[in-house]
Amino acid sequence: MTDQGVVYDLGYKPHEGPRLGRSAAVRATTKDGLRRMFGLRRRARKKILPFLLFGIALLPAVVFVGFVFLTSQIGAGDIVETPFASHAAYFDIAAGTVLLFCALSGPELLIPDRVDGVLAVYSSRPMTVFDYLGARAGALGIGVGLFMLVPQLILYLGFAALREGGFVSNLVTNAEDLFQIILATVVYLLAYGAPAFLVAVYAKRLAPATGVYLGVFFGLQAVADGFTNAGTRWAAVAALADHPGVVRDWIFDRSSADLVPTRADLAPWVSLVVIVAIAVLALAAAVRRYRSLL
Amino acid sequence: MNAVVVADALGHAYGDVVALHHVSVEIPPGRVGLVGANGAGKTTLIKILLGILDPTLGSVLVLGSDPQEDAIAVRARIGYMPESDCLPLSQTAADFMVYAAELAGIPAKAARQRASDVLTLVGLHEERFRQLGEFSTGMKQRAKLAQAIVHDPDLVLLDEPTAGLDPEGRDEMLDLIARLGGFGINVITSSHVLTDIERTCDWVVMLDAGSVLREGPLSQLLDTDTVEIEMFDDPTPIAEALSHAGATVTVTHRTIAVRVDDDDAYDLIRDTLARSGTGVRRMGTRAQTLEDVFLHSEEAAAR
Prior knowledge:
heterodimer; A: mainly alpha; globular; B: 13 strands
């Protein structure tokens, strides 16, 4: 026996376990997308913005539920019934962070793979162009879902606990709220996520893509606002940032008088059509571009 | 022997530019070189094998499946190392290898193990937690090879694997490629560097302007039909004797080149030399490189 270590060359070991196929490839791509969006397993600076935005989306719900809990202790729990505490109103708080999150995440999901040539790796794996784009869109959906649904769930559970009538009873009574929340979340995902994909399909760099996305949103919003005020009613179609709010209010059956499309007297379905049309356009553009690459 | 690739009258055109023209070839298992000048159609052929491009003519089977009909079945069993960059620069080598394995359907735990094993195999184990963007060209090439084999494919396609490497890096890469055959992985290496193919492959397919110039076992392609005899003294008497006996002979300085048409020619050379009692410095089949074969084939095709 020697006191020195010995290195054994074990040679090459072939994989003899299962191969999980196409569904595993889609899951892996989705998981990788989530890591990219939130900067997980990447440098610290990549994590700052997404987690900061998530904190901003989440904090008001936590603070509000906590505040109502404290006031209920001194007999002022009726504050839970104020309009500020509604699920529909909370979407306004979260929408800004979701818009910024999409502006950062859409490009992050698509551009590096294309620019760094990683698509060549996907092209040698058991997946199709639809699997790849679907997995990336799914990752964005989960990200937007976290931004929208987690605070809403905190409110939902908090309201149920703090309202009179009992926790379980309140959960059952207000179950319809959950359906509306999920529906409105999907609307925001399509309205803010699809244009981010559309920009990312063509852009070559992350920062300019984010800039173009935000520029288009805010620019068109200003144009729509100005023309609508001047009496050009159909210019309100360009108010991309306001459309999900209009549809959300349609879902929650509440007034959205302050939003540009409503001020222009456009029916809520017009906003829905605009959102769906842009989503279809983004999908078509992505498939067209990626078909020759994957 | 089941061929790993069977192409039948395969053709592909980019608009008016014909990239592949009537390519019919059966590529056997083992280490196969796909050689040809830039623009010969090598990368187009690889993209068709991957199912990225559709052939405009003909058909192809990869590991028994048609990549146009069932790209998923083909892609589940192959690996690909492209000529261009294919590494996400903001990810560590370990993370990307795990991801590359999971993309091929390897379960998460096994993917981590394979990523570690393969990074060790290509000599990047110490660097596994560094971001790929910090890697040198040589390290990137090794990482590209690692991602191509991390899922233990049946066939790996290597497109110009030594591009951009210094001589030392090139040596290491060729050694790695040469070892792959021993792991039970069939290898198709595309390169315009013929010496790389000579070092790593057993079978060669030569492409020129989109068509197959020659194909076959490397040893057969390098064989010549000429025996060279280098003499110590004046070669003229031996050359005359051989010529007199019916052999085709050419003399250059002290070297006699004898064309071998059949096995009798070897007997004739042996007997003639034995009778003369002349000293021979060296005798053997004329050495030919793959480059010679390629150039001669090109010339023959041009005629």
